[in-house]
Amino acid sequence: MKREEIINCTCGITEEDGLMIQCELCLCWQHAYCNNIERESQVPEKYICYICQNPPRQRSSRKYMHDQDWLKHGSLAVGNYHCRDEQVLRERFEKLKKSHDLSGALLELKDYMHTLRVKTKIAQAKNHPKSYLWSKPWEKLPLPEKAELKDENENTKQDDDHQYSKNGDETGDTVLLSLLKPVKDEVPDVAEFPKLDLNTLIENNLDQVPVNTLRIPQPEAAIDSADCRLNLLEHIQHSQSLVEERLNDFEEQINKLEPLLEEEENSEQYPKLRQTTQMLMRDLTVFKEMSQMTSF
Questions:
Q1: Could you point out which of 98, 151, 163, 249 has its C-alpha 20 to 30 Å from the C-alpha of 47?
Q2: Which Gene3D superfamilies match (predicted)?
Q3: CATH fold of 1-61
Q4: What is the dihedral of CA 67, 70, 73, 77, to 10 degrees?
Q5: Which residues contact 154 (CB under 8 A, 6 or more apart)?
């Protein structure tokens, strides 16, 4: 095991001993014999340690509130009476994952719209105390996924250019060397720069120090509220364009997702599904009341 790996077992020993297994949630390692596992073939496909299953001071009412398989992989628990075809389940889970990601992105966009409304209120005020934040123009950044796509295209282009230059003639190298030689000659030698003696600075005043070595801090320019407002309006306009691009992406995703969801729709099963759900809710309510009665 690597030195940065963490061993967090119920036995309290933080040393590697025998077969070690890793929890999928906390990514810590535990001893296999502490979990009644003797061979590697006995390790379950999805292993969660006892500490993650029963954390200290947990609320039993929220123990199963957030399913890790649903949050990370988009897969839900499947009953024994459901279809066991792995391909069908995988396609169904992919649809659920896409719908879940789309709803999460819509919530993020809602929060972003709130910040945009706050910035609009700042721009509407004449002398808002927060307008100084836009004393300089903000950088106009694209959407994250488009920025990653642009970086990939630039890396591909650089690789192509590197391959082309590698396969080129030697004449290009000679021309490049001839261009670089005068640049090297123009660089001044380190010995040409004036050296300052500490004793000279102490005995003779700072008047004898060369002027070009003194770095006097320049006062910052006064902040103009009109310029701040213009920069803020430009930033809001760019943010609105990003929101429009994001909405267009959502529309494309919805158009791709709708045909997949319409295939499984069957209006004849809705009444039966509603009755089954109501029966299940009643049974769960009765079971909850019985558990409360037996707990006293």
A1: 98
A2: Zinc/RING finger domain, C3HC4 (zinc finger) (3.30.40.10)
A3: Herpes Virus-1 (3.30.40)
A4: 90
A5: none
